[in-house]
Amino acid sequence: MSSKPAIKKRLFLVGTARSGTTLLQSMLSAHPDIFSFPETHFFRGTMSFIRYKRIFKCFGKKERAFVREFLTRLNETDLVELLPNFTCSKRRWSKALISILDAYAPKQGYSIWLEKTPMHLYFIDLIQAVKPDTVFIHNIRNGEDVVASLYDAGHKHPESFNTRSIDKCIRRWLREIRISKKYLASPNHVFVRYELLVDEPEKQLKKVCGKIGLPFDPGMLDYRRKADAIRFPEEVWKDRNTEEIKKVRKFETLFSKEEQEYIRSRVAPVEMNIFN
Question: Scanning 41, 103, 126, 213, which has the fewest C-beta atoms within 10 Å of its C-beta?
């Protein structure tokens, strides 16, 4: 009989881009019972996040190559054989992707795994369809800071205010907040506000641990020691995401007063306290 542990819990950490998911991932992966992968991008990288574009989607050589590239970096290319050679079934493909994670985590000695790819927010329906007991952790951050961070990351010269680009960032935040709202009453979903995680990390981590069914571990507050294990070497920006978290807000330094008011007018109508 195999001595590898059976999977007890699957966790997907999702949310709006630039919402602090790397920080929360580092904290959760510091729990002795949780194994976390580097971002797999499995769903985002093999199908469209737009639902109607998935209707006639098939999966074959190209999609297998995408997954193989990730597994090569883990020295686990044999796991690609868990994928079908060809299928037009999104359900079958989704189940196969999760089976890879189910196979890898026990090799590391873990029965609970955490996958963090923010855009997998768009694939909750597919993941729930094949694994209904999956727990989804939504990282939520206020619109002003997400827009500022998205804009800063996407522009070489962010000091040159571009209304069209700003609107694109705002629309993305609004769209992804709406998706998370759909799951507020769902039992397998837990919501963590970035601002509260910064101010009261222990309380927020206890809330997540309670949803998972694990005791809080104080070592989770010493999250920096796990940061290197959950990122690839080229993902240098993630170092900044796990550095000292109480910093001057980008929103206040990046935009003029007029620009700040424009952004606030677009994001202010969204009620954020429902995620507390």
Answer: 213
